Amino acid sequence: MSQAREILRVEGLGKRFPGVVALDGVDFDLRAGEVHVLLGENGAGKSTLIKMLSGAYQPDSGRILVDGEPVAIRNASDAQRLGIATIYQEFNLVPQLTVGENLALGRPPRRFGFVDTRRMHEQARGMLDLVGVGVDPRTRVADLGIAQMQMVEIAKALALNARVLIMDEPTAVLTTSEVRRLFDLVGQLRERGVAVVFITHHLEEIAQIGDRVTVLRDGR
Ligand SMILES: Nc1ncnc2c1ncn2[C@@H]1O[C@H](COP(=O)(O)OP(=O)(O)OP(=O)(O)O)[C@@H](O)[C@H]1O
Ligand SMILES: [Mg+2]
After folding, report:
1. Which CATH entry fits the domain spanning 1-83+163-220: 3.40.1350.10, 3.40.462.10, 3.40.50.300, 1.10.760.10?
2. CATH 3.40.50.300 domain span(s) along the chain
3. Nearest CA-CA partner of 30 in 58, 51, 11, 56
């Protein structure tokens, strides 16, 4: 792992909110094909850190480098262009739309001016097969279980060619067998060279899937 290519680096990142220093000079780096566990107590700054990588927050100080180049991640589309996908606990899927519609990423295939639902669902099927999830693309997202929603989110991230996949406490809402499936999938992503940032409170999960660990304490 040691000579694996570095995809992302954070140097001296700082972030204040009124009355609180959320992050104070944080350094962090991420290599292709590793699962990097981010560990820390409630309020340590884990979510704040990843929100700066996904464009939700702007850093007050420090810098973010992707492929060795300093970048500005001003919003979600900047992050997407840089290949950074984030899966929050509160998902980004549109619940009242079908899985296939969600996976069409706002650009459904058209035929004679109409959405070609058959093709849309075929394409979604292909994306879901990539993550090995047996969900019917015609299902409404609202009717999925949490674990299935998570898998659909991962499928979406891969469809957007994410090289960095950030997961904020993905196991918190899963059963033991669902966690096992998620870990299998994360292992496959790692084999493909995707870099995974994995936030957890559970120490035992580090041994199960982590290649490296960064511990945040009081924003440091
Ligand atoms: N939008 C915000 N406005 C004000 N304070 C915030 C905001 N977001 C985070 N904070 C504060 O910044 C600090 C770090 O919060 P953060 O959510 O990053 O922690 P965390 O490590 O993700 O915690 P948890 O394990 O509970 O998810 C906390 O003191 C929190 O109250
Ligand atoms: Mg958090």
Report:
1. 3.40.50.300
2. 1-83+163-220
3. 11
CB of 200 sitting under 6 A from ligand 1: no
Q: Over range 89-110, report the average pLDDT.
A: 89
Ligand 1 in reach of 171 Cβ (< 6 A): no
**pLDDT at 78 exceeding the cut of 60:** yes
Q: Which ligand is nearest to the CA of 44?
A: 1
For a mutational test of ligand 1's pocket, the pick from 10, 13, 16, 20, i.e. the residue with the most ligand atoms closer than 8 A to its C-beta, is 20
pLDDT tens for 124-135 read 999 999 888 889
Q: How far apart are CA 98 and CA 106, in angstroms?
A: 12
Ligand nearest the Cα atom of residue 18: 1
Asked if pLDDT for residue 202 goes beyond 90, the answer is no
Residues, the chain: 220
pLDDT score of 203? 86
> What whole-number distance in Å separates Cα of residue 77 and Cα of residue 81?
6
